[in-house]
Design brief:
Layout lengths: L7 E7 L4 H16 L6 H18 L4 E8 L2 E8 L8 E2 L2 E2 L10 H9 L2 E6 L4 E8 L29 E6 L4 E4 L1 H7 L3 H4 L20 H4 L4 E9 L5 E12 L5 E9 L19 H13 L7 H15 L4 E7 L5 E8 L10 E3 L14 E3 L19 E9 L2 E10 L7 H45 L4 H12 L6 E6 L8 E7 L5 H9 L13 E2 L2 H20 L7 H12 L4 E8 L2 E9 L8 H37 L12 E7 L10 E7 L5 E8 L4 H19 L4 H13 L8 E10 L5 E8 L5 E3 L5 E3 L18 E5 L4 E5 L1 H4 L2 E2 L2 E2 L1 H9 L7 H15 L8 E7 L7
Antiparallel strand pairs: 1-2, 2-3, 3-7, 4-5, 6-7, 8-9, 8-12, 10-11, 11-12, 13-14, 13-18, 14-15, 16-17, 17-18, 19-20, 19-23, 21-22, 22-23, 24-35, 25-26, 26-27, 27-28, 28-31, 29-30, 29-32, 32-35, 33-34
Helix pairs in contact: 1-2, 2-3, 2-9, 7-8, 7-9, 8-9, 9-14, 10-14, 12-13, 15-16
Length: 875
C-alpha cells in the first residue's frame, strides 16, 4: 500500500473448489466489517468474488487471499499458483474486450471500482491486488462528535488562513488579501482584474452540478471546489459566498475560502427557525432554514429535517417530501411530518394527479380547500388536511421531487407562500439530488454484491425444491417481509402455491392458509412488479370477521391463540404486495410474490433489484425442472435395463449386488439377470458392455432381452451367445463389444446343483469349496460383438452343498489404489475367507473388501452375483 503503515492483516487459503468462492466472500466481508470498513465492504466482496473465481475455477488452483489495513483504506491480494497465465493486456493499454466474455471481468471490475489495482508476479505465483480508499469525511460537520486525541486533529499552518476574495459583477477579481496570497501563491497584483474562473481548477462541488458562475449569482452559497495555485497544484477549498452591493448599487460577491480540511471555520452552524413574522424576516426565512445548513451524511436525515423546517417556516400542520422515480412518472414518499402512518415512506403517487389548480407536480400548486377538488393531492386523502401548497424540486430543469406543506384549516396559503416555498425548494434541490445519487450508488453496489451471491447460490443446485427455498430465503427479510412462490407446470395448468416464507416462522402456516383461499395472481408475462391487492383484502376480511366473533364470545384479554394468529397474519399481509413474473425461455413458469406488513411500501430500487433476482431465479427454477424431467426419464429407462426381481430357485441361495458409477445413475454398462427357463432350469447372466451412454445402454437392453428370449426357445448356451453376437454385429456403427458369462442352473435331487457355463471374454467365475479352496469354474472364450464366426462351448460345473459360485464384472477385479490393483488373486483371497457364509453375506463381504481397497469412489460399475448350495440341516 505504498508508504501507508499497515496496521492489521488477515490471510486465508481456499481450495480449488466452487464453494470456496462463497467462503472467500464471507472471509473478506467479516474481516472488513471487523475493522470498521463498512463503506467499502460491498466493493471488496464483489472484486474478491471475481478474482477468487478466476483462481479456483478458471486457473484451477488454490487461492491465497490477504487483507491489509491501513489508516486510509484496505488492500486485498488474491494469488493463484499459475504465474505463466496471461493477463488480457495489449501493447497499447488494457483491452478487456466485451463484458460478456468469461475472462477478464475481474480486472474490468478492478478498473471500475478500485482506487488502485495491479498484477504482480513472483517465481512461484501470480497475484492480483486492489486497493479501496476510505471516502473522505469532512472535518467540522454540523453534528457534534467525540473528543479526538491531539494526534488525530487536522493539521494546519501556524494559524488558520482565511482567504478573502471579492469578485465584481463581471466575474473579475477586485480584492485579494494577504491570506489568499499565502494559501494560493498568487500576489494581489497578479490576479486583480482577471476572471476568477481562470483560477478555478474544478469549478463544481463534488456530486453537484452548480458551477462557480452560478454560485456567484446567488445571494448566499457554501460548498467545495478547487483553486489552481501558483505552483500548478490544485488546492481543495471550502468557500462561503455572500453577495453584497456598494453605495452605488453595484453588486459584487465576497468569498471567504479556507483549505477544505478546515471547513469547520466557515461551515454554517445549525440555526433555529425564525419566529418573527415581519415581512423582512419572512423573506429571509428560506436562507436561514435551508441554505445556511449543510446536508447531513444520510439522505433520510436531510429529507426529514427539510420537511420539519418547511412545516415550521409556513406554520403548517403537516409537510411531506417526495422523490421522483427515474422515469419521472411517479413520486415516492420519502419523508413526512404530521401525517398518519399510512402515508409513510415509499408510497407512490402519480406525477400527473387530478384536475385541480395545477394538474401536475411539475408546477407549483396552491389548493385553498381540498374538499372542493377531491384527489388533487392523493397523499392527503382522508388525512383531515384542507389547504396545501406544493412546489417541485428541479435540477437543471428535470423534476427530482416535490415538497409540500398542508394545514387543517382552509384558505391558509396563497401564491406568496408558494413563492417562498419554491425559493427554498430551489436552494435545497441540489443538495437533495446529490444525497439521493449518493444513496443510489451505495444501493447499486450493495445490489451488485447481493446478486453475485444470489447467482452463486442458485447455480449451486439443480433440485427444484431447494431452488424454491433459496428464492424465498434470499428475498426474506432482505427485500420483503414475506414471500410466496407460485409455479405453473404447463400452459394449461393453473398457478400452484409452492412455497411460503415469512420472517416470523410462527406466521408461515397462517400465511399459507390465507393465500390458499385467495385466487392466485394472473400469470402475466409483462416484466416488472405489479401491485396485487388480494392478500391485503383477504387479510382485512379475516381480521374483521375474527374480531367480531372474538368480541361476541371472548373477553378482550382472553383472546384465543388461533384468533391472535389470524390477526397477526392479517397484519403481516396488510401492506403493499407485488407480483413479479418468473419468465424462462419465453414462458411464464411461475410468479414471485413479495409482501410488506400493514402501512408499509416497497421502494423503487428494491423492486428493481427484485426484478433482477426474479430473472435469475426463473432460469434456475426452469433448469431444475428440466434436469428433474430428464433425470426421471433417464432413471425410468435405466430401470428397464435391470430385471424386476430374482426368482426363488429351490435349494439354491442367490444374491446380487449392483453399483453403477456416476452421480444419479442407476444402471451403467454392467448388467445381470436370473430368470426361469423351463422344466426346473434357470438361466443366469452377468455382463459388461464397452463404453457408456445411450449406445452402451442400447446394447445392454438388447443383450438382456435376447438372452431370455433365446433361452426360452430351447437354445443351449453356445447357440444363445452365437445368435446374440450376430444381433450385436447387425447394429453396425452403434454396436459395442460385450463380455458375458452365461449359464444354466438345474438343482439336483441329491442337494447339489448342475451348472452349464459359457464365459465369453468375461472375468472367470470362482468356485469356493467347503474346505476354503478357491478355483476357476470355467475357461476363457472369445468376447461378443467383434468377430462373426464364434466357436463357443459350454462347461459343466457341479456345486456340492456348501459350495459357492462367485461371478463379478471387471469393476471388482480392476479396483485400483495408485499402482495397486485388486486383481483375480486378490478377489480369490477375499473369497477364501467366506466359508460357511450365506450367499448374501458372501456378496456383502466382497463389496466391503472392494470399497476398502481404495479411498476414492469407484470409477467403474460393479456387479456381484453369488450363488450357494446350502448344506442340509443337521439332525
Amino acid at each position: 500500500m505504498g508508504s501507508a503503515v499497515i496496521t492489521a492483516r488477515a490471510a486465508a487459503t481456499f481450495e480449488p473448489v466452487g464453494r470456496s468462492v462463497a467462503t472467500a466472500r464471507a472471509f473478506v466481508r467479516d474481516t472488513l466489517q471487523g475493522w470498521g470498513y463498512n463503506d467499502v465492504v460491498d466493493d471488496a466482496v464483489v472484486l474478491t468474488s471475481e478474482l477468487v473465481t478466476n483462481a479456483v475455477v478458471h486457473a484451477g488452483t488454490a487461492a491465497d487471499v490477504l487483507c491489509l489495513r491501513s489508516g486510509d483504506g484496505v488492500r486485498v491480494e488474491v494469488a493463484d499458483h499459475y504465474p505463466e497465465r496471461e493477463v488480457p493486456l495489449q501493447s497499447n493499454g488494457v483491452d478487456f474486450g466485451s463484458p460478456d466474455r468469461e475472462n477478464g471481468r475481474g480486472l474490468l471490475l478492478c478498473a471500475a471500482l478500485a482506487s488502485r489495482w495491479g498484477v504482480e508476479y513472483s517465481p512461484t505465483r501470480k497475484h492480483v491486488w486492489f486497493q479501496l480508499d476510505l471516502p473522505d469525511r469532512p472535518v467540522g460537520i454540523r453534528s457534534a462528535g467525540p473528543v479526538l486525541p491531539t494526534s488525530l486533529l487536522p493539521v494546519t499552518d501556524q494559524r488558520v488562513r482565511v482567504a478573502v476574495v471579492q469578485i465584481d459583477s463581471t466575474g473579475a477579481i477586485s480584492a485579494w488579501n494577504d491570506d489568499a496570497a499565502y494559501v494560493f501563491g498568487h500576489t494581489a497584483e497578479q490576479v486583480i482584474g482577471k476572471q476568477f474562473t481562470d483560477f478555478v481548477a474544478w469549478p463544481h462541488t463534488p456530486g453537484t452540478n452548480t458551477g462557480i458562475a452560478d454560485a456567484l449569482q446567488l445571494s448566499r452559497w457554501e460548498g467545495s471546489y478547487g483553486i489552481r495555485g501558483a505552483d500548478g497544484r490544485t488546492i481543495a477549498v471550502y468557500s462561503s459566498h455572500l453577495r453584497v452591493r456598494d453605495t452605488d448599487g453595484e453588486p459584487s460577491t465576497v468569498c471567504l475560502l479556507v483549505r477544505d480540511d478546515e471547513r469547520a471555520v466557515l461551515q454554517s452552524p445549525v440555526r433555529a427557525p425564525v419566529s418573527d413574522t415581519s415581512a423582512d424576516h419572512r423573506t429571509a426565512d428560506p436562507f436561514e432554514v435551508f441554505i445556511g445548513s449543510p446536508a447531513p451524511d444520510d439522505l433520510d436525515g436531510l429529507l426529514q429535517r427539510t420537511v420539519e423546517r418547511a412545516r415550521d417556516m409556513l406554520d403548517a400542520d403537516a409537510a411531506f417530501l417526495l422523490l421522483a422515480t427515474d422515469d419521472e412518472t411517479e413520486l415516492e414518499v420519502r419523508a413526512t411530518t404530521g401525517l398518519p402512518s399510512a402515508r409513510q415512506r415509499f408510497a407512490r403517487v402519480p406525477v400527473e394527479a387530478g384536475t385541480g389548480r395545477y394538474g401536475s407536480a411539475r408546477m407549483p400548486a396552491v389548493h385553498e380547500d381540498l374538499t372542493a377538488v377531491p384527489g388533487a393531492v392523493p397523499l392527503l386523502t382522508d388525512t383531515g388536511m384542507r389547504s396545501v401548497v406544493t412546489v417541485p424540486l428541479k435540477v437543471e430543469g428535470r423534476l427530482t421531487g416535490s415538497l409540500g406543506v398542508a394545514a387543517e384549516a382552509a384558505g391558509r396559503y396563497t401564491n406568496e407562500e408558494a413563492l417562498r416555498l419554491q425559493f427554498a425548494a430551489d436552494r435545497i434541490a441540489l443538495a437533495v439530488e446529490s444525497a439521493r445519487l449518493g444513496e443510489l450508488e451505495r444501493l447499486r453496489r450493495g445490489s451488485l454484491s447481493f446478486l453475485v451471491e444470489a447467482s452463486d447460490l442458485l447455480a449451486g443446485t439443480l433440485d427444484r425444491d431447494q431452488t424454491l427455498a433459496l428464492m424465498a430465503q434470499m428475498t426474506v427479510p432482505t427485500l420483503a417481509t414475506w414471500c410466496a412462490v407460485y409455479t405453473i407446470a404447463d400452459q394449461s395448468s393453473e398457478p400452484y402455491l409452492s412455497y411460503v416464507l415469512h420472517e416470523d416462522e410462527d406466521l408461515i402456516d397462517g400465511l399459507k392458509a390465507l393465500l390458499s383461499k385467495v385466487a392466485p395472481p394472473d400469470p402475466v408475462p409483462t416484466p416488472g412488479a405489479r401491485v396485487w391487492a388480494a392478500p391485503s383484502e383477504a387479510g382485512h376480511r379475516a381480521a374483521l370477521s375474527t374480531s367480531t366473533r372474538s368480541l361476541q364470545h371472548d373477553a378482550p384479554l382472553s383472546m384465543s391463540t388461533a384468533t391472535r394468529t389470524i390477526l397477526a397474519t392479517a397484519q403481516a399481509v396488510g401492506g403493499e404486495t407485488v407480483v413479479l413474473p418468473l419468465v424462462a425461455r419465453n414462458r411464464v413458469i411461475g410468479m414471485l410474490t413479495l409482501g410488506k406488513p400493514s402501512d408499509d411500501h416497497f421502494r423503487q430500487e428494491i423492486l428493481e433489484l427484485a426484478e433482477d433476482l426474479s430473472r435469475r431465479a426463473a432460469l434456475a427454477l426452469d433448469n431444475a425442472r428440466l434436469y428433474s424431467e430428464r433425470m426421471a426419464i433417464s432413471q425410468s429407462l435405466q430401470r428397464s435395463l435391470l430385471p424386476p426381481g430374482l426368482p426363488d430357485v429351490p435349494n439354491v441361495e442367490i444374491e446380487v449386488i449392483y453399483r453403477a458409477a456416476g452421480e444419479g445413475n442407476e444402471v451403467g454398462g454392467d448388467f445381470y439377470d436370473v430368470f426361469p427357463i423351463s422344466d426346473g432350469a434357470y438361466g443366469f447372466a452377468i455382463g459388461d458392455v464397452c463404453g457408456t451412454g445411450p449406445e452402451a445402454a442400447a446394447v445392454t437392453g438388447l443383450a438382456r432381452h435376447a438372452l431370455r428370449l433365446l433361452a426360452r426357445e430351447g437354445f443351449g448356451g453356445p447357440a444363445v451367445l452365437e445368435r446374440l453376437n450376430a444381433a450385436i454385429l447387425d447394429e453396425g456403427a452403434r454396436s459395442r463389444f460385450l463380455t458375458l458369462l452365461y449359464g444354466e442352473l438345474r438343482p439336483q435331487e441329491d442337494g447339489s446343483a448342475l451348472l452349464k457355463v459359457v464365459c465369453a471374454g468375461h472375468p472367470l467365475p470362482l468356485r469356493l469349496r467347503q474346505d476354503g479352496s478357491v478355483e476357476s469354474a470355467a475357461e476363457p472364450q472369445p468376447l461378443l460383438g467383434v468377430i462373426e464366426d464364434l466357436d463357443l462351448y459350454e462347461e459343466e460345473v457341479v456345486l456340492d452343498p456348501g459350495d459357492v459360485l462367485l461371478c463379478v464384472t471387471d469393476g471388482v477385479t480392476e479396483r485400483r489404489e495408485g499402482t495397486r490393483m485388486l486383481g483375480d488373486d486378490g478377489l480369490a483371497d477375499v473369497l477364501s475367507t467366506c466359508t460357511g457364509l450365506t450367499a448374501g453375506a458372501v456378496a456383502a463381504r466382497i463389496l466391503r473388501a472392494v470399497e476398502r481397497f481404495a479411498a476414492e469412489p469407484a470409477s467403474d460399475d460393479m456387479a456381484i452375483l453369488a450363488m450357494r448350495v446350502p448344506e442340509p440341516p443337521r439332525a
